[in-house]
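Help needed: design a sequence for this.
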């Protein structure tokens, strides 16, 4: 009897020590557990779909709001510092009325995020990925051990950075129509290819985000369908619960609540992937101050040529019907 009690006490102590060690690891190295992934697919010069999957150990309400960023109307996805304050803490995505798109993962300090927002605004207004702004972005990204940064122009030119400690990848490319890109914090899981099926919705991005094997603590997948008009652009918003079953994980209980323009979506109302729920839509005035606006027929220039995609194994075809 005493031996059985002694064994139980030893087991409890071992479990307690493991739990305490894991907690200390999370506190000491919070970025280790931030494994977010962005997905983007260019449909044509005026339309794209995108998705952002939050991977994190602790729950936070996801906030969506229509805002003005660098004098451009935009839709912002972010999480607050805490669920009581609802104040902006970490930006996930910015969908701009003029067709630009920004996604950030892993960059935690308000100062770093503020700088990246300002530089992004400069890039958009200049309508060019200039070497000066590229260097400014790189300087901030190189301060972060685990992160990603993705910025796309309306015509599909983009830059992307992925960092996981010493594993690093920088790239630039122009997306063809129906070409997708998967940008996780972990460069080894980067992926690009062509989607052969007809695109009617955000489903391809949900498929890609839920099949991306990077990330242990998978939470919500927020997806967006953007269509740019001459005066007004529209964004349709959807949410999915990445329960992990496509990548042999079980994370259904990690889904977060969502707030959108005063409407509350509890985590239990969000369907498992590949399902989705409509959160709503926004209209964004596609107007920029004339001092910062370039001619409509002027294409975005890109002057950053590191790690261009060229190998065949990085260009592969997927189909939505492969979902099981």
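Sure. Designed sequence:
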């Amino acid at each position: 009897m005493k031996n059985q009690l002694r064994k139980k006490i030893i087991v409890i102590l071992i479990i307690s020590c493991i739990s305490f060690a894991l907690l200390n690891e999370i506190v000491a190295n919070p970025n280790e557990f931030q494994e977010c992934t962005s997905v983007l697919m260019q449909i044509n010069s005026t339309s794209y779909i995108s998705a952002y999957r939050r991977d994190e150990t602790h729950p936070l309400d996801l906030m969506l709001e229509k805002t003005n960023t660098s004098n451009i109307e935009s839709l912002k996805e972010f999480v607050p510092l805490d669920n009581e304050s609802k104040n902006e803490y970490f930006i996930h995505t910015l969908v701009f009325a003029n067709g630009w798109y920004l996604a950030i993962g892993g960059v935690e300090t308000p100062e770093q995020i503020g700088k990246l927002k300002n530089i992004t605004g400069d890039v958009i207004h200049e309508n060019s990925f200039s070497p000066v702004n590229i260097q400014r972005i790189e300087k901030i990204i190189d301060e972060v051990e685990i992160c990603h940064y993705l910025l796309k122009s309306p015509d599909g030119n983009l830059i992307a950075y992925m960092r996981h400690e010493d594993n690093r990848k920088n790239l630039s490319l122009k997306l063809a129509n129906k070409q997708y890109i998967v940008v996780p914090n972990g460069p080894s899981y980067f992926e690009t290819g062509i989607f052969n099926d007809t695109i009617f919705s955000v489903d391809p991005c949900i498929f890609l985000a839920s099949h991306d094997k990077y990330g242990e603590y998978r939470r919500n997948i927020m997806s967006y369908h953007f269509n740019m008009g001459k005066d007004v652009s529209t964004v349709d918003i959807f949410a999915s619960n990445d329960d992990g079953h496509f990548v042999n994980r079980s994370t259904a209980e990690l889904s977060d609540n969502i707030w959108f323009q005063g409407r509350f979506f509890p985590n239990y109302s969000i369907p498992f992937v590949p399902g989705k729920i409509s959160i709503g839509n926004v209209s964004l005035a596609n107007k920029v101050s004339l001092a910062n606006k370039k001619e409509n027929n002027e294409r975005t220039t890109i002057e950053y040529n590191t790690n261009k995609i060229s190998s065949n194994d990085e260009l592969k075809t997927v189909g939505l019907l492969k979902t099981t």
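Residues 30 and 93 are 20 Å apart (CA to CA).
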